[in-house]
Specification:
about 180 residues; mainly alpha; Cytochrome Bc1 Complex, Chain D, domain 2; 2 domains; globular
């Protein structure tokens, strides 16, 4: 009887130790992970130029790249700009935005008002996803042009991300806001 009781007491004590230890180890493992550097404000590092020049479908590129990491590898590249102009007309962007990007039925691409922001990352996603999907991805309207309507998605209509970049490189040459505002 004594032995049984002692065993029971030992088991209880062990249980107490286990019970005491467990919450601590549980607390340890449930400690919040170290927040990534870009959690608050700081821009995430852009993808490398080599990575950005590997052709991908525009929508695959959007899906594979965290917000803020897309950067145009063809800005100021004369050949890419010439190809971008052809693509802009080939994909009928001019039908809505005008042949010089100055607007028409739709917002100008030349002024300092950028509906969702002016970065390469935002324009790439807007052109690929269209306004409705861009907003679903968490991008908010920041500016309003005279004409308000949805931009259609071109991610399925433009062959590769390289072509989207070339179009954006051409659009950048039409910017009339002055060099000090060119910070994309
Ligand atoms: C059917 C008309 C239409 C076509 C075609 C079209 N867009 Fe748009 N685009 C719009 C509208 C409308 C907006 C404004 C979106 C909004 O307010 O949500 C817009 C916005 C934009 C913007 C942002 C402008 C700003 O001031 O922030 C860019 C850049 C753009 N389009 C590029 C293109 C490119 C490149 C193409 C061709 C691949 C294209 N668009 C084809 C209607 C069109």
């Amino acid at each position: 009887m004594q032995r049984v009781l002692r065993k029971a007491a030992a088991a209880l004590a062990l249980g107490a130790v286990v019970a005491y230890v467990n919450p601590i180890s549980a607390a340890d493992t449930s400690a919040p992970p170290v927040p990534p550097a870009q959690a608050e404000g700081a821009a995430p590092a852009p993808l490398s130029m080599d990575e950005l020049k590997k052709p991908m479908k525009p929508l695959e590129r959007v899906a594979a790249s965290p917000k803020g990491t897309l950067k145009n590898p063809y800005t100021d590249n004369p050949e890419a700009i010439a190809e971008g102009q052809k693509l802009y007309f080939g994909k009928s962007c001019n039908g809505c935005h005008g042949g010089g990007g100055g607007g028409g039925m739709c917002p100008p691409l030349t002024n300092t008002v950028w509906v969702y922001g002016d970065t390469d990352d935002t324009l790439f996603r807007l052109i690929s996803l269209g306004s409705d999907e861009l907003k679903k991805a968490g991008y908010a309207r920041k500016g309003t042009e005279g004409v308000v309507g949805p931009m259609p998605p071109f991610g399925e209509l433009i062959d590769t991300d390289q072509d989207v970049w070339k179009i954006i490189a051409w659009i950048r040459t039409k910017f009339a806001g002055g060099p000090e505002r060119r910070h994309w």
